[in-house]
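Notes from the pairing session

We agreed to fold both candidates in a single pass and log them together. This is the raw record for the first candidate, unedited. Please don't reformat it; downstream parsing expects exactly this layout.

Candidate A
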Amino acid sequence: MTFASQKIRQRIVSLAPSVTSILMAVGARQQIIAVSKWCKDVADIGGLSVVSGDCWHFAARGERMASGGNAATLMGLRPTIIIGSVPFKTEAVEKILSLPVPFLALNPRTLADVESDILLLGSLSGKNERAAKLIGEMRGKFRAIAAMAKWAKSKPLVYCEAWPHPRISSPPWVAELVEICGGKMAVRAGERVTDEEVAHANPEVMVLAWAATGGKSKPEQALKNPAWKDVSAVRERKVFVIRDELLNTPGPPLAQGAEELMRVIHPELTEKSQMRRSAAKSGAA
């Protein structure tokens, strides 16, 4: 399907926060007719129908997904396309594919994949130029952070966690962000890991961004874990919480997520940067 050639105005049902955030950012807000309940943290979704269902589940790579909700409710909205992000449960896929509406399932794992998804959704919604501009803006923020990270005197090992039970490390795109911020992912990204594997890696910084919890990850669970009592990050109490949507949403929120990672991985550099900005403002006043 060549989305760019379509002349119709899309009526999009978005089942993933990443899809919603991208469409909002490229200026396609008016083409979204419904979102999943997990999209509530995406700005400006007021007035949209909210699709609910009984097959919500946590995906290993971090993002929250929906089953597709009630078929009658969906069709009553007259969608031209339904867009989600894998993995889905088998019954969820069967339910969505049974509908007489095109279904687009995205599966990003890397920052390059995220950029490809932005371009694809920009094409689908007729917002190609804005999509390209959004990618440029995100790259610019990443370059600025990487330039700051070059001043770091060390490259600490960082453990980022997307879920505690079972323990799952943050997705591969987060590992890339950690590298941009002058750190190194301590364990395999986007996979189940054990307490022993994390302890053996001995990360110097821990970041908790538990899916579907907002900023409510619990650092005390890491600090009180007997298996981690000798881990550097625990001994130095360098266990931090970053809002899950900033790391687990493969779209525009990752730019702010990178800023938050930089703040906890290299606080000495971000503090100096803030001081320089304050001095510059004072001098200009």
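Candidate B (folded immediately after A)
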Amino acid sequence: MSQSERSVTKESGAPAGASFDVHGLVGIDVAPGTPGESQLRDMLGPFLGGSHAPLRLHVSGEMTAVTDQSHAEDAYRFTADSLYLPADRVQIIETRDGYAVQGNGELLTAVIPLLDALCIRENAAMIHAAVVDYRGSGVLLPAWGGVGKTSTVAKLVAKPGVRFMADDWAFLGSDGMLMGYAKPMFLKPHHKTIYPDMFSGARKPLAPGWLTNSVARLATAVHPVIVRYPKTAAFTRRWSPEHRMVHPEEVFGPGRISSGALTRLAIFLERFDGSDARLETRSTEWMTSRIVGNFHSELPMVSRRLVEALGATGLVPLEEYFAHKAAVVRQALDGVPCSLLRIPASWSADRTSDYVANLISSKLEE
């Protein structure tokens, strides 16, 4: 077991309750005895601590009795201020300061979309992207999964003065401030040449590279079921042969982690069936649309199902949610150079990350 795996296990012992402060935007309070607490501690660890944020998520394992519910066939039951999804065993109740999230499953999949919805009220938004603080300049790299975000941040942080902010999820304020999310990183076999120290010594076995995609597809297929059982989900997250879970501080050192930087460059990364990389200038509107759509698309299926139910029942109207989020992102990117970088699908993670890191250096140092 690696140092990071031991530390996560230690931190996620007997449920005792926890509080998290997400950049002063939203507070998250987890009640003692909540079955999903260990997973929330794993994934929200960078924000652990008390919060005075006015907007809050109240997470607990106990369900509040709700009467006079309407039925949407067998999919969910709801009132004007509550929603229950039987398949996912999770209940959402609107409160004066945010939402209560209740259930005995792994509640992270419900917390994330609701956290985004509350952040939007505070003129910030969750994004799916790699983010680095490049000597004081925030670099935003939204991308589809598997493009090479985790590999690219390694090459960038290796440069003097560059600090890690996120390799998967982050936050973007309407004032253009990028806010980091140094959650655990999930390294796969193809990352071995890029993060060699994280694969040395006695560690859990990983599936061979040729089997990784099959394991990933299986994990995706069973995820909606596994999240109902927190202990199984915790075991799977730590011991899946698909990946190795490590903390960014262990990878880069605590001095190479940044919590915020003003956005100076935004490049959307995607793979395509070409032979050469192509950098194309894009408008703020184009980038806004991609960032909003990409975040939603990359949410787990269970989270997307919850967003759909919140919209269908009017608890979080989708037209307002997406419009407000787009407005936040659009304002944040005002005056920021935006581009699309299309990378050949045949390129390895190593080659891709070298190319992207060098391109960013040339843009910011020219």
